[in-house]
Amino acid sequence: MTERVSLTLNGTLLSPPKTTTTTMASSLRSTTAASRLLLSSSSSTRSTLTLSASSSLSFARSLVSSPLLSSSPLSQKRHGVSSVNRSFNSTAAATKCSASDPDQLKNAREDIKELLNTKFCHPILVRLGWHDAGTYNKNIKEWPQRGGANGSLRFEIELKHAANAGLVNALNLIKDIKEKYSGITYADLFQLASATAIEEAGGPKIPMKYGRVDASGPEDCPEEGRLPDAGPPSPANHLREVFYRMGLDDKDIVALSGAHTLGRSRPERSGWGKPETKYTKEGPGAPGGQSWTPEWLKFDNSYFKEIKEKRDEDLLVLPTDAAIFEDSSFKVYAEKYAADQDAFFKDYAVAHAKLSNLGAKFDPPEGIVI
């Protein structure tokens, strides 16, 4: 699931080689080109974990913040959220559809790739998909009351939830794509953008399906508080409480935490992290924030390596991040992923797909594969 998620790092400070904006952007473009060759259909207050990016696992607003745009929570509430909400809702009135068109999904994926290549907005798009899906409650059977991937995050009442601070920027980024492809539901577009961002950052191919039906109005939004908190008193227990409610398990929790390899936490949004570090002061996009990894636009297993080694005070470790090496059950998977990137990619792809389907109603029921 970044949003959607800091402990002072201990141990000897051994700073990795400095990563410049040019190096990072060049590395991202190289990774993107390579992934396109390898993946024919391939396309980062003490808040909530965006199992996420910038708890997203970015499900916190600290999980994956946008590398493109920065806005204060106050200005977001007064202007940004309301204006983008009006725009999305007026489009919804004219283009509401119960299922997505496969050809439009394929074309939209190419437009999302172009957006990623020009705006470097991978983390916040991951977080967008995760925060829409991460409200799912398996104990509620009725749709859309059960929450999950139903596009309800486009409505102002949910967009203003504390865990979603800054996600107005994500809606602004994809607004033109939604207007261009009226035959795609919001629920599908959010998940398409999230999976494509992972793949384009060098991550695994996600086994996605589409055809999600949209929630129809603000009355369908879940209550606030379903997303994880970044700094609860008992981080491991809190993660289990939230993710077990979604029907996910310990392996899913740790794998999804690995998406923190993308993105930055901005203290003005989440209450966590430094205003800037040597890795973020030059962007790309709006400078600032604190990242979990040196190359915070590259999807790999460095998140697990950095937490295990605890060697660089310029890298972020939240209480919920530290928990994956402190809890005995979580640690089994965290150690495995730190040592074996292929194993991490395999389990991450499964967990991300699982998350993206939570609470969704599909039309047709079996979904659409593109």
What does this structure look like?
This protein has 14 helices and two strands. With 370 residues, it is mainly alpha-helical. A two-stranded antiparallel sheet has the order 1-2. α4 packs across α6 and α13 crosses α14. The longest helix has 23 residues. The relative contact order is 0.21. The N terminus is likely disordered. It is found in: Plastid, Chloroplast. Plays a key role in hydrogen peroxide removal. It comes from Arabidopsis suecica (Swedish thale-cress). GO terms for molecular function: heme binding; L-ascorbate peroxidase activity; metal ion binding. Keywords: Calcium, Chloroplast, Heme, Hydrogen peroxide, Iron, Metal-binding, Oxidoreductase, Peroxidase, Plastid, Potassium, Transit peptide.
Provide a brief overview of the structure.
The chain is mostly helical. The protein has helices spanning 21-38, 73-95, 102-119, 122-133, 156-159, 167-180, 186-200, 235-245, 250-257, 267-270, 302-309, 319-326, 328-339, 341-357; strands spanning 264-265, 290-291.
